[in-house]
């Protein structure tokens, strides 16, 4: 799968997603884009999954009609996330187009 990590998600989370094509917002030069423009750019670039730690996005954006699936992490604290890479990795397989999945604190 082609996965995009939001700028608030530590780049080290790539390690949890072996076997996928993972890019970051920063790597693509998209840092600072508003959420709606960012999601549109990600969809146009062929990303299938967007991983974020912003708990407000689903309330701030109209997500109906979006093709990109969204995975919301419970934190962006790198050491905490590193302890739970298998949980993060398990959120991606089988996620459907436009689906919004919340990965809860274990």
Tags for this model:
5 strands, alpha/beta, 4 helices
Please characterize this protein's 3D structure.
The chain is an alpha/beta fold and 106 residues long. It has one domain (2-103). It has four helices and five strands.
Helices and strands, with pairings:
Layout: E1 2-5, E2 21-24, H1 35-44, E3 49-52, H2 57-60, E4 69-73, H3 78-82, H4 85-90, E5 100-103
Parallel strand pairs: 1-2, 1-3, 3-4, 4-5
Main sheet overview: 5 strands, parallel
Number of strands: 5
Number of alpha- plus pi-helical segments = 4
* Overall geometry: globular
Q: Separation of termini?
A: 25 Å
Structural class determined from secondary elements: alpha/beta
Give, in spatial order, the strands making up the sheet with the most strands: 2-1-3-4-5
**Beta-strand percentage range:** 15-25%
Instruction: State the helical fraction.
Output: 10-25%
What is the CA-based Rg, rounded?
12 Å
Please tell me the total number of domains. Answer: 1
Overall average pLDDT: 94
Helix and strand pattern: EEHEHEHHE
Poorly predicted runs are none
